[in-house]
Specification:
This protein has about 260 residues and is α/β, with parallel strands linked by helices. It is built from 11 helices and 9 strands.
Amino acid sequence: MPPSDDFTSKSLYFTYWSGPIDETVLLCWYLNLVNPHIHQVIYLDEVPDLEEKQQKHPFLLRVHFVELDWARLLDSTGKVFDLDLLRRIPNYQDQQRTDIFRYLSLLAFGDGYMDAEQCILDFTGDRLPNVDFAVYSSKGNSAMNNIFRFSFENLSRLQAWFADEFLPGRKMVLAPNADAEVIGAAYFQEALRQNQVWPAPNPSFEMLFEENLCGKASESFCDMWNTQIQSGIGVFLYPELRAHNEMTILRLLERHEEA
């Protein structure tokens, strides 16, 4: 359903979701919806309960959802790709399909990508980077691909590089039982290195630390949330965090919906 508000002046972020909707991620979708500086477009891949969730949470009627058609998305890139991908992608693991969408979104749309579990808590726009960015995990010692934005020269170089990766026999044509991380964070970091986006000196790119956009895992949920509202950019509600704090997250969502 198309959004009712004008989003032409906002930063666009594309998101992928597959399967039944977990209500604990709806807090992110609500806060991203009301953030005046971003517009989130969520591509749904075989989601059976959208209408049910829209009846329960009416704000979802205002979220910009698009039904994902892999053939149409691949065609929209304007690039040549391995036709066998249309048969293979439905059999990929969830994480691999998400990675494929991340890189296709760069080819098809440019702009930004964010995972469905990413809340942006900067409502003034003074903490969001005004240049291209990605996030670095000190724990994993690598760049993350859960949220990023690229434009201009950075985007052009990455688009050319990723387009080649969808050709026959290249990286996106995964072997059966391929490791879930084969096109994950380490692969994404290699793309940044190969295309001189990072760690090469690049005034149009900023690498953020994980705590800026995700919060500190060592903090309690409430402390993390309050800290990020005051001085951070967002919170990443990864599955373990949602599982351990489900009731708190659902109460927060209910409070926002009632406001």
